[in-house]
Amino acid sequence: MSNRVFFVFLIPIAFTIALALPPPAAQAAIDQIQVSNHSSSSATISWTTTDFADGCVHYGLTPALGDTVCDSRPDDDLHVAGLISLEPDTTYYFEVASGGEINNNGGALYTFETTTVGIGIPYTIYGDLTLPPEWTLFTVTIKSAGGDMSHPLSTLIDSVAVWSLNLGNLKNPLTDDVFHYATGDSLFLRAGSGPTGGFQDSTTVSGMSPQYVGQIVMDVLPTNALPVDELLLLGGFPNPFQRTTTLEYRSPVKDRVVIEVFDPTGRKCATLLDQVLPAGNGRVTWEGTGLPGGIYLARIQAGSLRAATSLVLLK
């Protein structure tokens, strides 16, 4: 009789405990794995996840892997990891880990090859992003007149919304050597901010470096992005310029407005405006006297709002 009583009470107790267990943690599915910026000693691996998560790459010279490099930024749904100190002309194996999930290509692992030592002819392309998310990965690939495709080049852009890449770093996946581009070759441009949203377009190599390839608008705008009607910085007029250029701006709020210019290394080289202003439009002028030619960044800040544009100084 005592056994029956014990058995009757055991079932509801066990059932109650099962209901109290927390559900399994959702994993951040890994997608859009890409290898870019191939060189003789480095490579960049990027990927997206369905949720914000951490991100690491396990890699090595054999399927046993052995080395790890992680995305140094806070948890995100766009992940970028740079591998350095690699051996030239060598095959590397890797897998990607994020949010408790590992993507190892179904157990076969992913691979890429470093290139032979070599540097191509420098050639700068650059552009602007409008409505930028906090982080965007911009990727460029070239197709030659003969149909050859280069390895992709990529750069990670933050909310300042300007990017540039050097076509001299392009590599040929067929020969693992320098990719020889030419005027008229096709440039394929792609920007992505995570598993959704992005931009794709194409143009051609003009033969005049630095080459401005235009302003890009992301198709899908994350909730943390800056709406275009919040704060604008337009210019310069002219751009490219040799001596003086004019920037126009519009602030939607009364606040302290700061406009600064940064050189290609990120060093601030000029403050064009720093004062409390009412909401409205205005303009400022910048003289690049005494500065070397190159791509400069002009940035405006009004309270917590920011926007930016790039300026090309010709010498």
From TrEMBL:
UniProt xrefs under SUPFAM superfamilies: Purple acid phosphatase, N-terminal domain (SSF49363)
Range of residues in the leader sequence: 1-28
Stretches assigned to coiled coil: none
Domain of life: Bacteria
Keywords: Signal
Protein name: Fibronectin type III domain-containing protein
Species this chain originates from: Eiseniibacteriota bacterium
